[in-house]
Amino acid sequence: MSTDIGHSGIVYWRRSLWKGARCEPVLVTLRPDSLHVRDRSLGTVLEVDPRAVSARLSRLGALVLKADGRRCVLVGRGASLSPEPSADQQRALEHAGSGSPGPAAAGGAVDQLFNGGAAARMRDWHARLTAAGARTD
């Protein structure tokens, strides 16, 4: 899928390395000229040009974004204590359309079995951000 159409999805923002309850769902929308990350109430967490973003994958499959002097860590699934995506996020995702899965979205058997495909989702987002012009570290 081309980033000219855009892509949206719900992933989890890890606000704390240690507190699972602080891992909350965010709606991420990537368009050719913007990366928009919104919280459960659809408030803006991050809105930047994707070319102004530095993106890297951690060894554990987290996507670490740096933009405007901020660091935002996104993961493919939340902790058992994490809240579910809000109804507002679900409606916004349906309205935006999620696009087609990218080639990196197909995870391996171990990722699917133990992690619900979370690492594959983050690899897919990393590939999409790179294609949109994000720097990689």
- The Cα radius of gyration reads 14 Å
Widest sheet: strand order?
A: 4-3-2-1-7-6-5-8
Number of helices: 3
3D shape: globular
Regarding quaternary structure, what we see is: single chain
Distance between the termini: 24 Å
Question: Stretches where pLDDT falls below 50 for ≥5 residues?
Answer: none
What share of residues are in beta strands? 25-35%
The pLDDT mean sits at 83
Report the helical percentage: 10-25%
N to C succession of SSEs: EEEEEEEHHHE
Q: Give the strand tally.
A: 8
Query: Structural class of the secondary elements?
Result: alpha+beta
Largest sheet: 8 strands, mixed
What does this structure look like?
The chain is α+β, with helices and mostly antiparallel strands. It has 3 helices and 8 strands; from the N terminus they run βββββββαααβ. The longest helix is centred in the last third of the chain and has 14 residues, at 118-131. The radius of gyration is 14 Å and the shape is globular.
Write the layout of secondary structure elements.
Elements: E1 7-14, E2 23-31, E3 34-38, E4 44-48, E5 54-57, E6 63-67, E7 70-75, H1 87-96, H2 109-115, H3 118-131, E8 135-136
Parallel strand pairs: 5-8
Antiparallel strand pairs: 1-2, 1-7, 2-3, 3-4, 5-6, 6-7
